Amino acid sequence: MYKRILSCALCAAALFSGTVAVPAGLAAESGVHAAAAAMTPGEIARWEVLSYARYSVHSTVKTDAWTALLSEDPEAASIEFLRYPGGGLEYATQRALNRDEGNKRFLRRLLETHLRAYSPEVYDAANLYLTTTASKREQFCHGGGYEAAKGRDQRFRAELGEQKRALVEEDRRYVRMLAERDPGTQVRFAAAYAVREGSTDDDLTDFFAWGWAQGARLDIETFREELLRENRQWQQTIAQLIVDAEAAEKAAREIEGEAGKEARDQAAAAWRKVGTDVAPARSKWEEARDFAQRQAETWHAILLAAQQAAQNPNWKAIIDPARTTEGDWTDNRSLSGEHVAYWESLLQKALEGEQRIKNPS
Q1: What is the CA radius of gyration of the chain?
Q2: What's this model's pTM, rounded to 2 decimal places?
């Protein structure tokens, strides 16, 4: 029975090194299409702020983004939210980097990655300290409280003994494979630590109980945070380039003769610059979409394996985190697909602009 279960689990490994095709029509399903190129600055800002509201890893950013979107004039509020320097996004991000906000984020992550059945001390403490004072949160997060709770949970699992008794060599081989080939950097780190030289059975049961899920959560947060930050930088650059290209095109249409030819060349070059600078953003989002698809498929396979091995307490512990993680990567795929379509529309806008200059009607 276990061999059959393990073979299902190991099917996930094939996904770690293979290429997963992106479903056809993914971008179309996102609701973002070529018409995005005709969106007003306010509509573009509102769409970008929606990405922060849905996907930011910071609760302060999510809350302030929703506040902007639900205001009486969401387009104006979205433009103000994105304004740099001094806009709402900058302010919300600064608050998120506050020490206590970081502690709250850490506690919420503990609740997402530690099941009460396997880590009761950490789970209960995280629940408690989310609603207590900042000084008490600091003491738990950085003053030894978390480490102490983690140690009590490890002793709790050791006293039960069922996790250790359920370990088999195939589990160790699987975790070693994760350490080498899992798509997620933090999952690889967590797996490598669990099977490092000199590691014990406690390290391996810790990995199944919370380390795997925590590594997965960190990978998701890193994916979203980095892409949203880079996208904001790309948006700022491209917005100005489009303004410049439109101004150059308008000026070129108003000038005749040799000077007009030179102005048209400059306008065409300005639109070409837009296309050149759009390409890296589109490519990065395409890579992100494919990676998110691969992760979603990987975690679906892990979920199926864990469900089939649910009589094993170590694999049972990963069922709920695997289900959540698969859903999060599916969301990341949608996020990426929407942005691929958006940047593709801007590339098309640049190409059309250059053609208008070269072939005036």
Answers
A1: 25
A2: 0.86
